[in-house]
Design a protein that fits this description.
10% strand; 8 helices; two-stranded antiparallel ribbon; binds zinc ion; 46% helix; 8 strands; mainly alpha; 2 domains
């Protein structure tokens, strides 16, 4: 009965052209825990349906089940893939809630350049080399904006601490508190001179990034 219900729902959502996949997927969904089932989104279903056809007969169902109920290594609950967060510099993965909890704390502790490593992963601390710094902070910044839209204080703390932790390095956060961009001081030959942020044009001292 459960199977028939899921089958008709899925046919509705993703279209009959995926006939066989829908059949297999419906069986797979019957085996996924209810808690995980409740969190499954259309994106998960579409991702699964785009798994290559060759894989279907052998282990489509097995893959689908894995994909729909992944265990978070931090809280041990199961979640569909769309609710799991992958760290940027490694492949560690945990659920959205655990990622938010981790970053909420880590943000409080990043007041010096060494501590910035805490932002890389909940499981390990990875060195953020200069060539990936801009991309890393851009990525992290947009993640944090998403995760903490309703927690303005967390975001403010992040920007404040990040500014303090990077102001002495060549790649630093803009000194304008309202600007979230990072920039690279290319001609930094230790002159005391002003440089504009390429993003907001805020003029700031190259040494301390204050106005
Ligand atoms: Zn978790
Ligand atoms: Zn990691
Ligand atoms: Zn700026």
């Amino acid at each position: 009965k459960m199977y028939r219900l899921i089958y008709s729902e899925l046919s509705h959502i993703i279209g009959k052209q995926f006939g066989l996949k829908i059949e297999l997927l419906s069986y797979a969904l019957c085996k996924v825990s209810v808690a995980s089932l409740e969190l499954i989104s259309i994106a998960d279903i579409k991702d699964i349906c785009s798994i290559k056809d060759t894989a279907i007969h052998e282990n489509f169902q097995e893959n689908a089940i894995k994909f729909l109920s992944m265990e978070c290594p931090v809280c041990y609950n199961s979640f569909p893939r769309s609710r799991m967060e992958t760290m940027y510099l490694c492949n560690h993965m945990c659920c959205l809630t655990c990622a938010q909890d981790y970053y909420r704390n880590a943000i409080q502790e990043i007041r010096d350049p060494q501590a910035l490593k805490r932002l890389t992963c909940y499981e390990e601390q990875i060195e953020i080399s200069d060539d990936i710094k801009l991309n890393f902070f851009q990525y992290l910044g947009s993640k944090l904006n998403q995760w903490f839209t309703d927690e303005r204080l967390v975001l403010d703390k992040y920007h404040e601490n990040l500014f303090i932790a990077t102001r002495d390095s060549q790649i630093k956060k803009c000194g304008n508190p309202r600007c979230t961009s990072f920039f690279n001081l290319i001609n930094n030959n230790n002159r005391i001179a002003r440089a504009p942020c390429p993003h907001c044009q805020f003029q700031q001292c190259q040494q301390c990034c204050r106005k």
